Write the structure tokens for this entry.
Amino acid sequence: MAKPVLKTKLCDMLGIEYPILSAGMGPTLIGEKTGAPVELVVAVSEAGGMGVLGGSGFTVDELRDAIRQIKSQTDKPFGVDLLLPQKIDLGGGMGSRDIDQLPLSEVLKSIPKSHADWINKIKAEMGLPDVEVMVRMNTTTMRPKESVQVCLEERVPLFCAGLGNPGFMVADAHQRGMKVLGITGNSKNAKRMAQSGIDLLVAQGHEGGGHTGRIGTMALLPAAIDAAAPVPVLAAGGIGDGRGVAASLAMGCIGVWIGTRFLATNEGGALPVNKQRIISSTDEDTRVSTAYTGKTLRASYNKYHDLWAESGLAPLPFPTQVMVSSALLAAFIEAKKDDYVGGLAGQVSGIIHEIKPAKTVLEEIVAQTVDILSRRLPESVMLK
Ligand SMILES: Cc1cc2nc3c(=O)[nH]c(=O)nc-3n(C[C@H](O)[C@H](O)[C@H](O)COP(=O)(O)O)c2cc1C
């Protein structure tokens, strides 16, 4: 059977066959493998979409290695996603120390007493063990300038900023033939980012997994498209099959950025327990909470959400709150308190029922999108 054709301006801009990107997804909070690892990037790019590496948990050297691994496994274009926080302060000047890693117990000494007391109270009440975790201080998120430099040197085809405005590196990226993508959750930021010279903007609605804003995808897309014009927009948040892609293209997007659906694939980097939770979830089984990173973040519902909500504490700034959640998560996992553990995931979990190869997911999404756009609308729609 002939391959289906689904082409937009995005395909010409990036040199890809289908206007579908697998989203950059970072590591789990206790430093497991990244959500969008080399295997996923290669599988999606080879299948005709564009895979985007989740580079936020790597060290700078690991980032360079991962980029080179991708290049050695595919000739197709790919992307790299980094988080570029404006300010990094773990308290006590920790963010500026020139060290590779620190014991978590050491890092926790610099957080406010109220939060440290709360961690100890929970551990005592639940009988949790003391678990030592080494915290990496030299990740790309802690060293944004060096990490961007690696992407420039490696001439990564698409640089994506999952947090922060990448405007400062656009001129250098363009000089090297790269494209730059920003991500936003509201139209005010969409306008600001578009004015900074980026090539593409992802508008991610409230439904999405990971850090998320307050505006639902349906309301956000037209507003972001208007605000960002003439910079073209990709849709994100709640897209898991061809119905979501067809709707996004109909609304004026030139492509889509899909996270949770690609996470729950053979190549997706989530812990097996978290993949299982996605496929057993309904559309009601995720929550937005500041518990994990200090910013609003959507994850599969678990009892840690309730503990944090009941604490009455204010979240610490990103990434300091990650230390709080890491300390407890490591203890929950060690004590096998699975009810208190859940990975980042979006509301679209409710329509994901099977872990499959990423290539199959991409092919099914393309086929369904083409089917809808070329001939099939529900019977309830009548056209003259
Ligand atoms: C496990 C996971 C990790 C994520 N990590 C990042 C990240 O490191 N950087 C980023 O820009 N976005 C991150 N996101 C957000 C995704 O890039 C994407 O915008 C989102 O998943 C889209 O919504 P969907 O999950 O409904 O497809 C993450 C999402 C998930 C599910």
Summary: Residues 94-136+274-340 form one domain. The radius of gyration is 20 Å. Residues 23-26, 35, 54, 56, 81, 83, 162, 183, 204, 207-210, 236-239, 257-260, 263, 343-346, 348 surround flavin mononucleotide (CB under 6 Å). The CA atoms of residues 370 and 376 lie 9 Å apart.
